[in-house]
Sequence to fold (83 residues):
Amino acid sequence: MAQLIDSLKCANSFFFVLSSYFCRYAGCLDCECNEFGVTDMQCSEQGICYCQGRVDGIKCDLCPEGMFGLPYKMCEREFFSCS
Fold:
C-alpha cells in the first residue's frame, strides 16, 4: 500500500481502494498485472488488468488453451513430439 499522489489518485500501475467495511481503509494497491500478458501495466478502477490478444485472467496471467508460458514469459504454442 502506497503510491498515493493525491486524495483519490494513485501512481501508474496502482488503483485506489475504499473499503466497504465502514469505509475504514482508503489507499492505493498494486495492480499486479502480469507484464507478459497485458497491453498496459495500468488496471481498471476495480483492479482488473487489460489483457492482450487471447490472454485471460483478472491479472492477465492465463494462456489460451493449447498454449503455455504465463506467468513467466509470453504464451507459446504447445508442441508434442511423436515418439
